[in-house]
Amino acid sequence: MKPRTLVLGLGNVLMTDEAVGAEVIRRLSSDQTLDPSITCIDGGTLSFTLAAPIGDCQRLIVVDAAKLGKAPGDVRVFEDVEMDHQLRSNAKSVHEVSLSDLMDMARLTDSLPDQRALIGIEPEFIGWGETLTPAVEAAVPIAIQRIHDLLARWDSE
């Protein structure tokens, strides 16, 4: 039996490139070949209600816009301790709760997923708007491929 995997997309769909996590989830969810052990959730702009699904999974992949200091649309994968470090060093959030807070809650309740990764996509523009910029739009299939690559590697370990 495959481990329960949560793929969590974060972001505000009304704020251009901030919506990239939600767009990745929308497209990934429509993949008919996706294993039933994988749950896709659009986490929006975060909430404490996400603590339960995070605590219930053994593997977690989070997709979000992330200021990485790279070119717009650049996709970077942070795994396990590297993910923890990225969240701690960039823990500022304008939302009710940050992803770092949710990971700390999982740590405190001994429910931190065994395998976890953050797929960060460099935004070009974050402001009012309902479509991704071309560079970030082009990154969506790359991010989906990185998700598939992670899952394949984790399945083989």
UniProtKB/TrEMBL annotation:
It comes from Thiorhodococcus drewsii AZ1. Belongs to the peptidase A31 family. GO terms for biological process: protein processing. GO terms for molecular function: aspartic-type endopeptidase activity; enzyme activator activity. Keywords: Aspartyl protease, Hydrolase, Protease. This is Hydrogenase maturation protease. It comes from the Bacteria. InterPro entries: Pept_HybD-like_dom_sf, Peptidase_A31. Pfam families: HycI (PF01750).
